[in-house]
Write a structure and sequence with these properties.
Helices cover 23% and strands 24% of the residues. It has six helices and 14 strands. A six-stranded mixed β-sheet has the order 4-5-8-7-9-13.
Length: 261
């Protein structure tokens, strides 16, 4: 990934998409106060609503998204599901399109916006069909197959071929920091058929650690995606750059992602 600075604000771009307007934003450059400092994009955490709105405006400024395009931006109410929304434009009278954790669109100038604080950002782009997608994958979404379901939705809605779809897995809590319980281990085994390469046991006490990066990569590969870029940045280890629900014990903000045609 490439780190880009825009004044005090900073965001990351995937190297495979130099001409696609997108960004995974850090916590730097916003106006929110502690504990949501600074570029918090989550509006239901107790942060000042005006500050969150201004943070979104700063993000749009950094990506050179103009006023007309901003009015067409779309987000969802994220619920740790594998539900996919086909986006044709904003929903009148509502700031979010649906309760879901994935969006796809073939509409130009329609930014897709999501929020994270340890869960996995997934971005998808089919340059041959002119289609984009974005998903939010925590452990629940991952074992429900939100990544592969988004690929299948692109295929069904727009005729995309999985081998033409390029994928990117953004910063999320890493495999050395994401300790999970046995119910998660069982859910991983149920969905993937095995836990090899996905669950690591601590040699000292047997506790389990889940590799969200590898799991979502495997799910995308199962769906037929061949080109996958993985950021490899751990949000829990890099609270200097990103918000982390786990590392900051829930008192933190949400970093934003944007992708648009």
């Amino acid at each position: 990934m490439e780190r880009v600075e825009h004044g005090a604000l900073a965001y990351y771009r995937f190297a495979q998409w130099p001409d696609l307007k997108h960004g995974v934003f850090t916590r730097h450059g916003g106006v929110s106060q502690a504990p949501w400092h600074f570029l918090n994009t989550g509006g239901t955490l107790g942060d000042d609503v005006a500050a969150v709105r201004q943070n979104h405006e700063l993000i749009y400024d950094a990506l050179h998204i103009n006023a007309d395009q901003r009015r067409r931006s779309v987000t969802v109410w994220q619920i740790h599901s594998a539900d996919v929304v086909i986006v044709n434009g904003p929903v009148r009278g509502r700031r979010w399109a649906a309760q879901a954790d994935s969006m796809i669109t073939d509409q130009p100038d329609t930014p897709l916006v999501m929020r994270y604080a340890d869960c996995t950002p997934i971005m998808l782009y089919d340059p041959s069909k002119g289609v984009i997608g974005t998903a939010h994958a925590g452990w629940r979404g991952t074992v429900l197959g939100v990544a592969s379901r988004t690929v299948r939705a692109m295929k069904q809605a727009y005729g995309c071929r999985p081998q033409d779809i390029q994928a990117a897995i953004g910063p999320a809590i890493g495999p050395d920091r994401y300790q999970v319980g046995e119910e998660v281990v069982q859910a991983v085994a149920n969905y993937f058929g095995a836990v090899d390469g996905l669950i690591r046991r601590d040699w000292a006490d047997g506790t389990a650690y889940f590799d969200l990066w590898a799991a979502n990569r495997r799910d995308l590969e199962w769906a037929g995606v061949e080109i996958i870029e993985v950021a490899g940045l751990c949000t829990a280890a890099r609270t200097d750059e990103f918000f982390s629900h786990r590392a900051e014990r829930g008192r933190t903000g949400r970093f934003g992602t944007v992708i648009t045609l």
